[in-house]
Amino acid sequence: MSATDIHDPNRRDFLYIATGMAGVVGAGAVAWPFIDQMQPDASTLALASVEVDVSSLQPGSSLVVKWRGKPVVVRNRTDKEMKDGAAVSLNDLKDPIARNANLPADAPATDANRTTPGKEAWMVMVQVCTHLGCIPLGQEGDFGGWFCPCHGSVYDTAGRIRKGPAPENMAIPVFKFISDTKILIG
Amino acid sequence: MSEGHSTYTPKTGLGRWFDARMPLPRLVYDSFIAYPVPRNLNYMWTFGGILSIMLVSQILTGIVLAMHYTSDTALAFDSVEKIMRDVNSGWLLRYLHSNGASFFFVAVYIHIFRGLFYGSYKAPRELLWILGCIIYLLMMATGFMGYVLPWGQMSFWGATVITGFFSAIPLVGNWIQELLLGGFAVDNPTLNRFFALHYLLPFMIAGVVVLHVWALHVVGQSNPTGIEVKSKTDTVAFTPYATIKDAFGMIVFLFFFAYFVFYLPNYLGHPDNYTVANPLKTPAHIVPEWYFLPFYAILRAITFNIGPINSKLGGVLCMFGAIAMLFLVPWLDTSKVRSAVYRPWYKLFFWLFVADAILLGWLGSQPAEGSYVFMAQMATLFYFAFFLVVMPVLGLIETPRRLPNSITEAVLEKKNKGAGGHPAGAVSAPETKG
Predict the structure, then answer these.
(1) Following DSSP, what letter does each residue of A22-74 receive, concatenated?
(2) With helix as H, strand as E and coil as C, how does B202-266 read?
(3) Per the CB < 8 Å rule, is B157 touching A69?
(4) pLDDT for B42-53, tens place per residue?
(5) CA distance A22 to B4
(6) Cβ-Cβ contacts under 8 Å, B284 against chain A
(7) Are A71 and B280 an interchain contact pair (Cβ–Cβ within 8 Å)?
(8) What is the rounded average pLDDT of the residues A48-68?
(9) What is the rounded distance in angstroms from the CA atom of residue B335 to the CA atom of residue B332?
(10) Rounded CA gap, A178 and A182, in Å?
(11) Of A41, A69, A134, the CB nearest to B185
(12) Which residue in A127, A111, A109, A117 sits closest to A173, CA to CA?
């Protein structure tokens, strides 16, 4: 045996480690395209925003557009619906967060925070139940808002969860009025 | 029992030539002809063979269906209807495939319950058991993705709900869900990748089956007494004994299968799946395929927050946890006795567990409201208690019955009893023996 039993890091150790590292980086670089290709592709992302003409919507009527494969409801609320929505105390809400993508993540779920300033009559909302993804029916249920037939979640006129198994208020997507009659969603 | 020397002797010159170069005939001979099996195997042991033919049947019918199917959201539903109406014998191939999936699961559930009853998972068969659990997981993934392909309403909404589970994972959940879907909702990219994976996974199952059988042939089969093979009189040759018994089991099983294919082809399906998928309208009541119902009931039973875990994530964790329990069974069961035949208390709890699993399945098909929710919560509690409390504790406190000294003794004892005679020696009243 040689005199140096204590193993000093030498050139060969460096080469082993360097080769190993290059191998790991190489394997990662090869693996990434295989994972990356599963993410939403360019044509899917191209549908990430839609323009909606809402000039035909009288108070009390709504329309549904498909955005990112999900239904988005645009509703011109009646005065009564707005009053009902505004009258609710935050303490009565199961989910006190606005869930409005246009506002900070911790904004409270007031009726005003569920809409957009100056356009309080308009609800623009992803009409997907936050429980297991079913589509609630409009203007049904105890609160005159939405009712999910799958597992009985009840939402109010501002799309806030009031009763049933759903954990959150229905989501409000990023949107803005680009004119008085046109909304850009996404 | 597998370390015995090969007794294969090629009879022809060609056989000897082959044997010296690639002894495949020797492998087949040693595995399926001369292979010694315990002499006391009952019909519960025929389901391994039944599962093999179901896998082959699914792959064969699946490959020919793929020749007529189109995995595009605009065409998928119509292409399935075309298979049903226009393709020669298409209706038969599709019904064989869709009912075949159900009967595959019937067989695998009997196979798993057989393992739980006779303690087939205990040392040295832990790895054999775990490989089986992996096959079961792969089967579930394959079955789920296959159900999406016809692109009916249940296909679409089942896929929406099941991929929605992943969104419950904190932080990365939404990214994982988008990765699975290839978009923000179930759509064309989802259908295409599910088709590709549905085609791939059965071959992965076949690969794990090879490992499963390999592990089986190393440790040998368990048997109803749970006593290891000790001498040559404990075994018989695979052919003709096991071959004939397996063949008879298969024929009886295929008889039931054929009855469903020809007389009740849609009984196990859902009528909503004959409506084309509509992303803007949810069916009134979403249910998965029957073989997922117990887990679906567990998912929906968690309606309350557990500390920092909200009800949605809690439900998903419990559902996956229910499957994870199976993987842990070899270490949860502390009893040294394998077979429930000699474990009076375990036997009782085993049958309660079977009843509980069936109850959960029924609850999974009912709407999640009213007293169903409470029943599902209780049934879920018992499900986990069976694995986490009953299995470890019973092994420590239960007094098993007297075990026979060998398989041969057990067989002869039974034979004497069956003939009306009294068992020889000191084998009286085994149920009172401490």
Answers:
(1) HHHHHHHHHHHHHHHTTS--HHHHHTT-EEEE-TT--TTEEEEEEETTEEEEE
(2) HHHHHHHHHHHHHHHHHHCCCCCCCCCCCCHHHEEEHHHHHHHHHHHHHHHHHHHHHHHHHHCCC
(3) no
(4) 999 999 999 999
(5) 47
(6) 149-150
(7) yes
(8) 89
(9) 9
(10) 6
(11) A69
(12) A127
CA-to-CA dists, residue B118 to A62, B121, B226, angstroms: 61, 8, 7
Sequential DSSP letters for B128-147: HHHHHHHHHHHHHHHHHHHH
- For residue B183, give the nearest of A40, A66, A167 by CB distance: A40
User: DSSP letter at A108?
Assistant: B
Find, among B187, B150, B180, B390, the residue nearest to B274 by Cα.
Answer: B150
Q: Would residue A151 show up in a list of annotated catalytic residues for this protein? A: yes
| Token pair belonging to B123 | 């040392």
Residue pointed to by tokens 């054999």: B128
Angle at A21 between CA A20 and CA A25, to 5 degrees: 120
> Tokens 């020797």 map to which residue?
B26
Find, in chain B, the residue whose alpha carbon is nearest to that of A136: B282
A interface test, pick of B282, B312, B319 with most A CB neighbours within 10 Å? B282
Report yes or no: B271 at the A interface, CB cutoff 8 Å. no
- CA gyration radius, chain B: 24
Q: Looking at the DSSP assignment, which residues form a beta bridge with residue B235?
A: B38
Entry field: residues in chain B = 434
pLDDT of B353-384, one tens digit each? 999 999 999 999 988 778 998 999 999 999 99
ipTM of the complex: 0.77
Judge whether residue B426 has pLDDT over 60.
Answer: no
Can you say how many angstroms the Cα of residue B157 is from the centroid of all Cα atoms in its chain? Answer: 25
* Torsion angles phi and psi, residue B285, rounded to 5: -150, 105
Residue A20 and residue B274: Cα distance in Å, rounded? 54
* Average pLDDT of every residue of chain B: 91
- Spell B288-316 as b/e; 16+ CB within 10 A means b: bbbbbbbbbbbbbbbbeeeeebbbbbbbb
